[in-house]
Specification:
Distance between the termini: 26 Å
Order of helices and strands: HEHEEHEHEHEHEEHEEEEEEH
Number of strands: 14
Number of helices: 8
Largest sheet: 6 strands, parallel
């Protein structure tokens, strides 16, 4: 992947470890280029989100840790490594974050890090990538911050900390991802089986599951579904939308309100434009669904549904 990226002339490569520095240097040298890099630094900020998608704390597989000054020492390694140029720093504190104070705290840590690098090594990076993580409303009572509020918080924090520390304003990058594409997407399922366990749970089995949406099984994500062909009716039942795979944890929605379901109903699960199809799999040999774009009442297929022939066409 590194060779492909450098050969393609990619703008920046985010470096996550010392080992990558050496690999990039070697490949760039062979290709006769100097590769711009970001160092991903773990700022030690505990974002208010699920532990599985919290990436900025010290106990994380991501980035150069600040513990024992490791990240700061590795900056010198990056500056001394041939065929690479340290263009900026990168951090990412997690995903599906509502509380903006976490971003402001991370900015302070990163700008202080930039200032220390300038003071000690005489080197001032030109760019700062604060990653993404802004959340969306998956439930009706969710109150996420807006993109405008996120931008205002992040930009103001960078400006204030740079002025306080005498650091020139870096080129600021963010990666809004989910907050742009999740809400426009929804997934449609057909009801195939109804099963009620008195006093325990009502299961509504659908023609999909963890193969097309792993989020609920992976970290108990919440969704509020609706029956598309009964959207005007009240949600009077509490149900679990279970998938078709051989796992008890295979569910898309757990204990959420829904209209009274019948066999053949079409259920819409909202907010699936991010972290669903991109994480889809062929679990249990299940072909992935198609993708349809809809605009102004017109629909067009942009990714066709997989077939079983697709699954075994590589077999020898």
């Amino acid at each position: 992947e590194l060779r492909e990226a450098i050969s393609a002339g990619v703008g920046r490569i985010v470096v996550d470890s010392r080992i990558e520095l050496g690999r990039i240097s070697k490949i760039a040298g062979e290709l006769g280029v100097t590769q711009d890099i970001y160092m991903r630094v773990t700022p030690g900020v505990e974002a208010d989100t699920h532990e599985y998608i919290r990436t900025g704390c010290e106990d994380s597989k991501f980035g150069f840790t600040m513990l024992n000054d490791f990240a700061f020492k590795c900056v010198k390694d990056a500056l001394d490594t041939p065929n690479v140029r340290l263009t900026g720093f990168h951090c990412h504190i997690g995903s599906q974050i509502f509380a903006l104070h976490s971003f402001a705290e991370a900015v302070q840590v990163m700008v202080e890090f930039i200032a220390r690098v300038k003071e000690t090594y005489g080197y001032e990076v030109e760019e700062l990538d604060m990653g993404g993580g802004l959340g969306i409303a998956y439930k009706a009572d969710d109150k996420p911050s807006t993109i405008d509020e996120f931008a205002e918080c992040t930009v103001n924090a960078v400006r204030e900390n740079c002025e306080r520390l005498g650091v020139k304003l870096p080129r600021l990058a963010v990666e809004p991802g989910r907050s742009l594409v999740a809400t426009p997407g929804l997934t449609l399922y057909t009801v195939g089986i109804l099963k009620t366990l008195p006093g325990i749970r009502k299961y509504v089995a659908i023609d999909g599951g963890m193969s097309d949406n792993i989020r609920t099984a992976l970290y108990h994500a919440d969704y509020e579904p609706t029956i598309a062909n009964k959207a005007g009716q009240p949600r009077t039942e509490i149900v679990t939308l279970c998938g078709k795979h051989c796992e008890s944890g295979d569910a898309v929605v757990i204990d959420m309100p829904l209209q009274t379901p019948d066999l053949g109903d079409v259920i819409a699960v909202f907010g699936t434009g991010a972290y669903c199809y991109t994480m889809a799999s062929n679990y249990n040999g299940q072909p992935r669904p198609g993708i349809v774009f809809v605009k102004d009442g017109q629909a067009r297929v942009v990714t066709r549904r997989e077939t079983y022939a697709d699954l075994y066409h590589r077999d020898i």
